[in-house]
Amino acid sequence: ARIAVRCGQGEATVAAGRPLHGGPGLGRASFIVEGWRLARRITEIFSPLIPMPRIQFQLPERFTFSTEIQIYISHVNQGGHLDNAQLLTLVSEARVRFFQALGYREAGVEGLSIVVGDIVAQYKSEGFHGETMCVEMLPTDFNRYGFDLVFRMTEKTGGREVARGKIGIVFIGKADRTVAPIPASIVQLLQQRAAAGTRPTIA
Questions:
Q1: Burial level of 192, CB count in 10 A (0-12/13-18/19+)?
Q2: What are the backbone dihedrals phi and psi of residue 91, each rounded to the nearest 5 degrees, phi first?
Q3: How far apart are CA 92 and CA 101, in angstroms?
Q4: pLDDT at 107
Q5: Where do the H-state alpha helices sit in the chain?
Q6: If the chain, 203 residues long, is cut into consecutive pieces of 10 residues, what is the mean pLDDT of each piece?
Q7: Cβ contact 189:102 at 8 Å
Q8: Which of the two ends of the chain, N or C, has the fewest CB atoms closer than 10 A to its terminal CB?
Q9: How many CA atoms lie within 13 A of 126 on its CB side?
Q10: Alpha-carbon distance 36 to 38, whole Å?
Q11: Which has the closest alpha carbon to 123: 72, 175, 83?
């Protein structure tokens, strides 16, 4: 017979009447004691009373791009608000428009393509069907192969912040699909716009 001991998030299965530590077979009383000790140990390992750290994300003082995107019914979940996965869909649409404002398609940026290496999102409030989101973006933290695209999403009418975060943009070759250095012309263009304070907007 086997007995499963469950405590918090941990689970262990031990064989009744068999040694737990390589010693002789255990009687019923010894098995109960050892089972209790095992359960306590599992609790100590898998259920620490330590709160999970939250994401804290600081925004820049200003953004150099903005676009407006409406929340459709397909973006809303059963809770009646903007689904967390669909929020990323809206951010992706804004990213496409960001590159369009530069005169590029994501599949063709100076002979290269781009991919998203990672994304960080901090949800600040709910978004609802019919609301128009203003998504602002700013490229930051340039590296050899790309940059971070910081974003803030707010409700257009009242200015309520819905989400903030950043997207890791990585450039790759079209043929070999491996990482490639960011074109110098792209870095220069983005830096010029940032210095001039230009703010292209795509509806």
A1: exposed
A2: -65, -40
A3: 14
A4: 81
A5: 28-46, 84-101, 184-196
A6: 40 41 48 53 53 73 94 93 93 95 88 93 93 95 94 96 95 94 92 69 51
A7: yes
A8: N
A9: 8
A10: 5
A11: 83
Q: Are 36 and 3 contacting, i.e. CB atoms less than 8 angstroms apart?
A: no
Characterise 80 by phi-psi region: left (phi > 0), alpha (psi -120 to 50), beta (else): left
Type of residue found at 136: E
> What does the alpha-carbon distance between residue 17 and residue 170 come to, in Å, rounded to a whole number?
58
| Alpha carbons 135 and 176: distance in angstroms, whole number | 33
Q: How many CA atoms, within 13 angstroms, populate the side-chain half-sphere of residue 138?
A: 18
Angle value at C-alpha 157, between 151 and 161, nearest 5 degrees: 35
CA distances from 94 to 7, 8, 31, 89 (A): 45, 41, 61, 9
Q: Are 67 and 135 in contact (CB under 8 A)?
A: yes
Residue 87 is classified by DSSP as H
**Inter-residue contact 109 to 171 (CB < 8 Å):** yes
DSSP assignment of 5-44 equals EEETTEEEEEETTS-SSSSSPP-HHHHHHHHHHHHHHHHH
Tokens of 145: 């192969």
